[in-house]
Design goal:
- By secondary structure, the protein is mostly helical.
- Helices cover 75% and strands 2% of the residues.
- The strands form two sheets. It has a two-stranded antiparallel sheet with strand order 1-4.
Amino acid sequence: MKTRLTLVITAVLLLTLALLPLYARWLEEPFLLTFSTRALVLALAALSLNIVLGFGGMVSFGHALYLGLGAYSVGILASHGVDNGALQLLITIVLCTVVGLATGWVSLRTSGIGFIMITLAFAQMFYYLFVSLKQYGGDDGLSISLRSNLVGLNMGAPLTLYYTAFACVLAVVVWTQHMVQAPFGMVLQACRMNERRMNALGFHTLRYKLSAYVLSCVIAGVAGFLYANLTGYASPAYLAWTVSGELIVMVVLGGMGTVLGPLVGALTLLGCEELLKGMTEHWPIILGPLIVLVVLLARRGLYGLALDWDARHVQAKEQP
C-alpha cells in the first residue's frame, strides 16, 4: 500500500519529466532535452527488462538484442527511403515477437546461469550478424538521415520525440502497476518464488514466463525504435553485452521488482554519469564504487528504499 512518501516521489518525478522540455526551452539548453530523451528511452528498455528480471526472476543478459532490432528496423527501412513510422514499428513488434518466441522457448528450458549464458549467446549471435551486414554499414553502423513519420508525428522533432518516449514510459508504468495485481502478474511472481510449487498446483509456468519474456522483448524493441530516431544511427554496439549489463544496473539500482524503480535507476545512473564526466575523465572509478555502495545499503534499490520506509511507517501506525 502506497503512503505519502512514495506518492510524493511518483508525483514529483512524473511532473518534473512532463515539464522538463519547457524548462530546457526556457534555459535554451537543447542538450538537456536530448539527454532527458535518451534517459527516458533507456528507462523504457529497463522497464521492459524489469518484467522478466524483477517480477519473473529471469536474469536476461541479452536484452540489448531487442533494442538493436528496433533500431535496425528503423535504419534499414530508412536506408531504402521508407520513413513510415507505423510500418517500422509494426516490423519491430513482429520481429521482436518472433525472435523473442524462438530464443525464449530455448532459453526458458534452463534457469540460473544457464539462462544467463544462453540469452547472452543469442545476443552475441545477432551482434555478429549485424557486424557482417556490410551493405548496412557493418561494424561502422548505419546512419539514419530519414526520421520516422509516425501517424503524422515527425520523430525528428526533439519535443515530439521526448513526449512520445514519455508517453511510452508512462503507459508501461501504468500497465505494470495493473499487471502485478492481476492474476498473470501474481502467477509470474509466484514462479520467481517457487516454480516447482506452481507446477504442482497445475499452472503451466513455461507459458506464463514465455509470455512475459516476449512482451518484454517487444517493449525493448519499441525503445530501440525511439533510440534510432534520437541518435540518427543504428549500430551493432546497441546489441553489445555491455548495454545489457547497463540495463541490469539500472533495474537493480532503482529497485528490482518495483514498478517505478527502473525509471528511477535509469535517471540516477545517467545523471550521475553526466555529472561525473564534467568533473573528471576518470569518472568510472568513482561511479563504480557508488553503485556498489547503493546496492549494499539499499538492497531493494533507491525506490525500494522509499517503499520499505513506507511499509515500516504503516506498520508503526498499526501497532497499538
